[in-house]
Design brief:
Blueprint (H helix, E strand, L loop, with lengths): L16 E8 L6 E7 L11 H15 L8 E6 L5 E7 L4 H17 L20 H14 L10
Helix pairs in contact: 1-2, 1-3, 2-3
């Protein structure tokens, strides 16, 4: 089997940032997947699941209510727990969505109140939430986006 593209990235050199992970769909229906890397792989502790879960609920809520909601396909965590994937329609560059990502993580950082979708009716694991840690990771990620890394290391 061929090694998938994300396994070709040297994770020992990867830093927090916003990267184009892949493009699919061709010219007719282009789709871009972004790697929102929040922690440095294999160097920092991974994010805890309750914080990730809260960030997923808040991030998805924000993205599906923002001005670019018609372009958003998916927002969800990486299995390695070092970041998130954002999948959007169109052929996009990191610079094209940097403002949207900053706004999304400001929303998470500043959020107060009940977590959207965090009830037994709406979520299969509604009790596993941690807003304080979600806000911490949002602050951390926003800090890394002050001088953003927008391309994978060579």
């Amino acid at each position: 089997m061929e090694r998938i593209e994300s396994f070709r990235v040297d994770h020992t050199r990867l830093m927090p940032g916003l990267y184009v992970s892949r493009r699919d769909g061709g010219k007719e229906k282009p789709v871009t997947t972004f790697d929102l890397r929040i922690t440095q792989p294999n160097a920092e502790p991974v994010m805890d699941m309750p914080a990730i879960h809260t960030m997923e609920h808040l991030g998805a809520t924000y993205l599906r209510n923002c001005g670019q909601k018609d372009r958003v396909i998916y927002f969800g965590p990486m299995g390695c727990r070092t970041g998130f994937y954002l999948v959007m329609f169109d052929w996009l560059e990191s610079e094209d969505v940097l403002s949207l990502i900053r706004d999304t993580f400001r929303f998470i950082r500043d959020y107060e109140g009940d977590i959207p979708g965090a009830s037994a009716v709406e979520c299969g694991n509604y009790q596993e939430q941690n807003l304080n840690m979600a806000r911490y990771y949002a602050r951390k990620y926003l800090s890394s986006l002050e001088q953003p890394r927008l391309t994978y290391p060579e």
